[in-house]
Amino acid sequence: MSQWSGKVMHANDLDETYTSLCRTMTGLGESGATLFLARLALLALARSSDAAAAQALIEAAAAADFKS
Amino acid sequence: MAYNLPVSTESSRGFVPYPFNFRRYPAIMPELREGGDCRVRPVAIVGAGPVGLCAALGLAAHGVPVVVLEADAAVCFGSRAICISRRSLEIIERLGALDAFMQIGLPWTGGRSFYRDVEVLRFSMPADENQKLPPMLNIAQYDIEQILVDRARAFGGLIDIRWQTKVVGIDAGASGARLHVVTPAGGYWIDADWVVAADGGRGFMREAMGLKMRGRRYQGRYVIVDIQLESDRPVERLAYFDPPCNRGSTVLVHKQPGNVWRIDYQLRDGEDPDAAVKPENVLPRVDSLLDMMGERGAWAPIWIGLYQANALTLDSYRAGRVLFAGDSAHLVPIFGVRGANSGIDDADNLAWKLAFVVKGLAAHSLLDSYSTERVAAARENLDFGARSTEFMAPPSFAFELMRKAVLSLAALHPEVRSLINPRQTAPITYSASPLHVAGSLAGAPAPGAVLLECPLTIVDTQGRRDGHITDLLLTAPAGAFTLLWFAATVEVPASIDALIDDLRARRIPVRLVPLVRAPAEVRARLSGFDHTGRLFRLYEISGETALLVRPDGHVLGRWAAPAVEQIAAAIERVLDR
Question: Which CATH number fits domain B215-309: 3.30.70.2450, 3.60.15.10, 3.40.50.300, 3.40.50.2300?
Answer without folding.
Answer: 3.30.70.2450
